[in-house]
Amino acid sequence: MRAGALHLTTIRSSALAVLFLTFAATGAAQSDSAFVPTGVAATETITAKPSLFKPTIGLGAGMFAFYGDVGGDHVAASPLVSRLGYELRASTPITKWLEADLYALHGRLGVNERGLTRNLNFDSRITVGGFQLRYNFLQLLNPQRQVEPYINVGFESVEFLTKTDLYDAAGREYFYWTDGSIHELPEDDPNAATSAVIQRDYVYETDVRELNADGFGKYPERTWAIPVGVGARMDLGNNFDLRIGTTMHFTLTDLVDGVSEKSVGERAGKVGNDRFLYTSFSVGYTIPMKRKVRKPVSTPLNNDQLDLIVLNDDEDGDGVKDFADLCPRTPAGAQVDAKGCPLDGDKDGVPDGLDDEPDSALGASVNTRGVTITDDEHLHAWLDWKDSANVNIIRDRVESVGGARRAAPPAAKRVYVVKVGTHTEGISEELIQKILSIPDVRTIEQGDTTFYVVGSYDAIPEALRRELELKGMGIESTVMAEEDGNLVDIRKETAADRARMAGMGAGNDSRDVTVRVQLGAFRNKLSRNIFKDIDDLVVIKGDDGLTRYYTGSFIDVNEAARHRVNMLTKGFEGAFLVAFQQGQRVSMKQAGAQLTGPEDLRTLPSSSINKEKVRYRVQVGSFAGNVPLEMMDKILGLGDVEPLADAQGVRYFYGSFADRKSADDARQAIVLKGFGDAFVVGTVNGRIISAEVADSLRK
Questions:
Q1: Of 616 and 484, which is predicted with more confidence?
Q2: CB-CB contact of 42 with 136 (8 Å)
């Protein structure tokens, strides 16, 4: 979210700036007009001459090179061997020797540092928007030159989103050994002898700011910078030019790579802010501009004849000559007074000749025909615009009945939901019980934050009613918009709606008992693959560190019990029923269940994955394309090998083991047969998970 918002702002600002330069140049080119002596000019001819304003639009590509703490200021590396970037430029001359540029850059910065003391890497998506001036040394060069050097300086806004590669595709952490290899375990681990050698996948999956390895917290991922560069421009003819240059961007932050002199231990960097070099070429097209100059041409009429025409002309045809008409361009058919102004008896702004209601009340709002607009019509028009739907007024309430008068629906449908909670680290047990007591609660994950929302409404008033109902139950809630699975804060939009809905009261339609099936509570968050067949999963992480998984929402206990049996057949052994009412956990007896013995909530299991369904396999290899014939023969020679296709290619798995030790022994044997990259994974109901998660489930 945060990166998307600034990125769009930068691009929009640059686009507006391009349009401004183009129209400003056009306006300036057309503003000159010749002075016409009295009684001479009746017609004109137009000639053109070159204009100083020559807007140029340019597109280019180049390479970003990073100079900062990670990578040691790009030591021993060429600035041209780095990450790719793109630029969009709009420029215009200010003088013959000075040019102004508005530009936007987008690309990636990245460094991989390997050493004996530390191993760091990062990849950052970078977006830049700025303004700069170019000086072309006109005073020192031949005016007829084809190639001209230049220097440039300016200021700019920089946004960055930095990530690092800490884990491979199977979720195993990289541990760098002193022999230069990468293993799945630390070199000093007691089980280091059995550690498998792994390879980096160069997928930068971990957000550096969220990792908070040095305790910097939520620092801004944007900054200002000063670009200073040199280059050369060559005229290609036909209004095209080629520019080649390099610019160093001096930022005002030291956290582009997430490392500074305040970092901890071996991560500590040097003093000074980060900077990056952009070396590029671009092709530009200059929009030809010519200034129009009007030249007067004499007419066969003399001054007396021209004056006679002016004195007797009546352009609007209202019977009052233009010379004495105080209200020119009166609408056709309007009745006017002696000064040519329309008569308006009721003072509503509509001339009497066009007024269908000539006696409107003083100060009343009227339409273009002079008819008073009622309060219901005002509300209808406002809600029609606000909700993007046809709205009917029915007694004392407003109902949205869809877009009967609309064209095809927009590509991105907006609905309104009510947010009842959010968390990033964990929430209290009290809030958990309140949230789970709402029958239609669901979760939306957006970045690092999980939102708990209820409802899905086409119009704001419907969502506001639900918000008032929830607040009547003591649950803090806020109306938000949902577009393509993303939430949008609309508090400013709904201020007027809240004022209008404030007197409508709140209902109490969520007071029934809600019975859910709890699948388990786990110390570590599980892979979504385990719950792939459950489309109503609600995931809540409490402040006790446990992540709980729920499914179903029932009023009838018997229906909830049948759903629990269905979950048991899917391998969630120990799944149990929980009931909530009015924001609190209640016993199953209070929910209407007939108990055969005493109910003790403390005896309920916390983990409900059937251990017998947790298995281990050995991943022999992964291939994005066709497997070489020799390698396929080796894989088939292992026996008991099963292929599994996914979006990345085909993976081959060997065996199925009930315990981790058997899988590790099988992996060692497979490594000796030439499959050095083989490693152990876990499975639940045939779905692949990491071996570590499988270990925790079996415990």
A1: 616
A2: no
